[in-house]
Design brief:
The protein is an alpha/beta fold. The chain has eleven helices and seven strands. Helix 4 crosses helix 11 (360-367) and helix 6 packs parallel to helix 7.
């Protein structure tokens, strides 16, 4: 997900609410229920409010005051017309270009996430990824890094794929060091770093061959490489749209098909998780991002289509659609714009944005045998955003 950084948006919490109009209640028709079955109606029981007798004054004065108050609070037709639809539209003035590689903030592995589960509370053995080799694209930062770490915590060896191999190499060592600190008595996982331009077929094939040479095989794939930009559709440069689709859609397709060929060649089962977005099912407001939304809708349906096509080969394909997540990049933006964060959280039923580690459990579940009868599913991890 992305966040508009072109300007600070008004906080939803600070908006002036338009008074809700209940309309005119119809006059009830004469009851058809026999009088002997009707409950007696006492003074003060009708309507929405009752007033204690001790506080009740002249009825005509009360009615006149109530009518005046209602008239004063009722918005005018002009006010209603100006507010109609205003919070359900995109704002073309919001323009955000994805930063270049050298400006992207680094991420850090999550420390201590597995201590309680490993040593205190038992869990189903089918959730384990022990003995598996997983690949995560876009794994040097943000969501990809943390999901890759979750795979390692669950027992897998890991191949981190990223456009920035130097950062991927650093993070691979960080993951191993974190594991050693948490489990000094256990053999550390094998975590390797690999370069790939996910939108380039030759680069993808070379990367897969390198991973197989390092690890011997591939069992699981998580396609996390992707980015978004905020532009109004009529002004979005076509070359940037092609790049966005190349990374988000082509990259997912190329890695998935390459890993599928590898699995089919081994006659082996496998599991893949495509990282989509809630934007593939809803339209985000107020930031305009039609190309990104369409790309993530494509990723979601690609997962469904391939799950059917590859079911006979024992390859499961599912999709995770995150909501607004606090990665290092988004945290940096929101630290400077607290009003923006308040606006987004006001639209999330759980009242908070997601943390990257909120995806550790879902991705482990979908990769593991615990979800052996789940394929073609889209798991939304959005705090309830898309159901309101």
């Amino acid at each position: 997900m992305s966040f508009p950084v072109g300007r600070v948006l008004r906080s939803a919490a600070g908006r002036t609410r338009t008074a809700r109009l209940l309309g005119t209640l119809p006059t009830p028709a004469a009851s058809t229920i026999p009088s002997r079955f009707r409950a007696p109606v006492t003074a003060g029981a009708a309507g929405f409010h009752t007033v204690p007798a001790a506080r009740r004054q002249d009825g005509s004065n009360n009615n006149r005051t109530s009518a005046q108050t209602t008239t004063e609070n009722k918005p005018t037709d002009e006010e209603l017309a100006s507010a109609a639809g205003s919070f359900a539209r995109t704002d073309d003035s919001i323009t955000v270009e994805y930063p270049p590689e050298e400006q992207l903030p680094s991420s850090e592995p999550v420390a201590g996430t597995d201590r309680a589960g490993a040593h205190v509370f038992p869990t189903l053995a089918t959730f384990s990824l022990q003995g598996k080799v997983g690949v995560v694209t876009g794994g040097a930062r943000g969501l990809g890094l943390v999901m890759g770490q979750g795979m390692v915590i669950s027992g897998a060896d890991l191949a981190i794929v990223d456009l920035n191999k130097e950062e991927a190499t650093r993070q691979a060592q960080n993951i191993v060091d974190t594991f050693r600190n948490d489990h000094p008595d256990k053999k550390p996982p094998k975590v390797t770093a690999h370069y790939a331009d996910v939108s380039d077929p030759a680069s993808v094939e070379a990367c897969i061959a390198e991973i197989v040479a390092e690890h011997g095989r591939i069992d699981n794939l998580v396609t996390s490489a992707g980015f978004t930009e905020n532009f109004e559709a009529v002004a979005y440069p076509i070359d940037r749209m092609r790049k966005l689709w190349g990374v988000n859609v082509d990259g997912t397709y190329l890695f998935a098909t390459s890993v599928a060929r590898h699995l089919m060649g081994r006659n082996a089962k496998g599991s893949m998780v495509f990282i989509g977005s809630m934007s593939g099912a809803i339209v985000n407001v107020p930031q305009p991002q039609a190309p990104y939304n369409a790309a993530k809708a494509a990723v979601r349906h690609l997962a469904s289509s391939l799950s059917v096509e590859w079911a006979g080969a024992g390859i499961r394909v599912n999709c995770i659609s995150p909501g607004y997540m606090l990665t290092a990049l988004t945290q940096k933006i929101l630290d400077d714009k607290p009003d923006l964060k308040r606006q987004w959280t006001s639209l999330i039923p759980q009242g908070r944005m997601g943390a990257p580690e909120d995806l550790m459990g879902p991705v482990t579940f979908l990769l593991s045998d615990a979800s052996s009868y789940v394929t073609g599913a889209d798991l939304r991890v959005d705090g309830g955003y898309t159901v309101t």
